[in-house]
Amino acid sequence: MSDVEDFTGKTGRNETREEQLDRNWAELLQELRVLQTGVQILAGFLLTLPFQERFETLDDFQVGLYLVNVVIASLTTALILLPVSVHRRLFRQRLKATLVSSADSITKLALGGVGMLSVGTAALVFDVTIGRAAGLTAGGVLLAVLLVLLVLVPIRLNKRAATE
Fold first, then answer.
1. Contacts of 69 (CB under 8 A, 6+ apart)
2. Enclosing H/E stretch for 116
3. DSSP code for 87
4. Which residues of 81-114 are buried (b: 16+ CB within 10 A; e: fewer)?
5. Do 125 and 133 touch, CB atoms closer than 8 A?
6. Structure confidence at residue 10 (pLDDT)
7. Predicted local distance difference test score (pLDDT) of residue 84
């Protein structure tokens, strides 16, 4: 169980519950900063595309994939900002445990959004540059790799840690 989920104070650290929550909050904010950078880069790339001359040559599938990517980028950006908004609403109400727990869940969703945005962007780039089959293949392969890296590896590490 991670520190974020374990509020019993049994983390192997000599800290109070409040200190643990403060540390967990700071760690979550740092993770959100990393996610934000990735989303900003991909969203910035996507937002420049309609202003390129070649954009007009995209077929309906490519335009649809582009628009789905823009929606995913926008929603992921909103998810990354959500913990800050929640913090503003809960500030000085002694609800840090609620804040940290909700931010943990939101961060996991945002991570999924970054993964989907990466898959969609890669699929679009491969589709436009090499062809539809390459785009679908690149998207599928990247999706499989991200599922392994972002889902299966953490699950396996958690299981390994539980047996140690």
1. 42, 46, 117, 120, 121, 124
2. helix 96-129
3. H
4. ebbeebbeeeeeeeebeebbbbbbebbeebbbbb
5. no
6. 55
7. 86
Amino acid at 154: P
Tokens standing for residue 150: 């972002």
* 70-92 residue pLDDT tens: 999 999 999 999 988 888 887 77
Contacts of 151 (CB under 8 A, 6+ apart): none
Q: What residues have CB less than 8 Å from 4, skipping those under 6 apart?
A: 24, 27, 28, 100, 101, 104
Global pTM value: 0.80
Residue 114 CA to residue 35 CA, distance in Å, equals 7
Check pLDDT > 70 for residue 3. no
Please report, as a single letter, which amino acid is at residue 72.
I
pLDDT in tens, 6-27: 444 455 678 888 889 889 888 9
Please give the structure tokens belonging to residue 93. Answer: 């109400």
